[in-house]
Amino acid sequence: MSHPLSDRINSLPTSQTLAMAAKARELRAEGKDIIGLSLGEPDFNTPDFIKDAAIEAINQNYNSYTPVDGYLELKEAICTKFKRDNDLEYKPNQIVVSTGAKQSIANVAQVLLNKGDEVLLPAPYWVSYSAIATLSEATYVEIPSSIESDFKITPAQLEAAITPKTKMIFFNSPNNPSGTIYSEAEYRALAAVLEKYPQIYILSDEIYEHINYDSKPFSFAAIKSMYDRTITVNGLAKAFAMTGWRIGYIGAPQWIAKACNKMQGQVTSGANCIAQRAAITAVLAPVSKIQYMVDEFKTRRDIVINLLREINGFKVNVPDGAFYVFPDVSDFFGKTINGVTINNASDFSLFLLEKANVATVTGDAFGTPNCIRLSYAASELQIREAIKRIKEALK
Ligand code: GLU
Hints:
This protein is α/β, with parallel strands linked by helices. The protein has helices at residues 7-10, 16-29, 48-59, 72-86, 101-112, 127-135, 155-161, 184-194, 254-267, 273-284, 291-309, 345-356, 380-393; strands spanning 35-36, 95-98, 118-122, 139-143, 166-172, 201-205, 230-235, 248-251, 324-325, 335-337, 340-342, 358-359, 361-362, 372-375. The chain is globular, with a radius of gyration of 21 Å.
């Protein structure tokens, strides 16, 4: 007998990143030695100076509801950070602090999208963008890219995807899952197209901002003509190794921030008070304090790329940021390896889980079905062992 769940939840896909992490956990509990390269989660501890701020907040009895959109001190600190790192002028009434950047994005979608609106998603895109658009009753339109273009879309592609129903576009640089970073010039070229369509709002997800290896990412809202219709999303999870603390935030036109505040007031009442106090210390800290993690990610990126390049059939580019590689594995499609026929990236990812005991995520989940995602937010030892196993399983 089927349970009387809503059409909404029945049609919602499960988050593939979280599902794969759960599957790896389950197999481990059964005694299998699974190496998890599926979840985008830094394997570092939260830095001590942030932990100390949280402990102090507990001892100072920060235990009550916070303002729905966040403590004023935190919103001021975020404005300081936006000015310092992104050359963006926001006032505290343009900031909303949420329970992770995922909630920030969901808030924005809920307050801006109506049934029938179209959301453009340059692919590959993070798994939850499409689900969040669908939950808002909008439809999403993928703009494809491939490893040959370093997973970037062109202004011509953007223009071709726009219809009278287009309401939003989601940008994400550095990108999850490809690690691609759009340069300022590339962003300006895309903005030149959007200038012709004033009805389109831009969500710029900059959660991987600090995890970049050669060039500082550019904030979309720093383009003057885009500022009034861009929502800048960021958070603490990735750069500060604070995934479980769940603090994300937006900088947005005030009317959008006000609407997100109203939405959040009915859904969560605001983010955790202790995590917010610690976040004040984190966002105000000089970026140099977290550089050791970025340096380590860079070392691992180089290791992953070099090792994957040694495997026939893996097409690999060099990602500039985040902590993912997104190889094209379409060479394996249609082949039978170790008795298993691989028809697509999901088959390939499952094959790696079952035959190599390595958890990855299929590219289908990111709108790019030729690829799989490997997260290198794992120790060097684990990365080397995982790729050794992959190589052996594919022999
Ligand atoms: N953003 C991370 C990832 O892509 C964490 C899991 C999730 O929220 O999707 O792996």
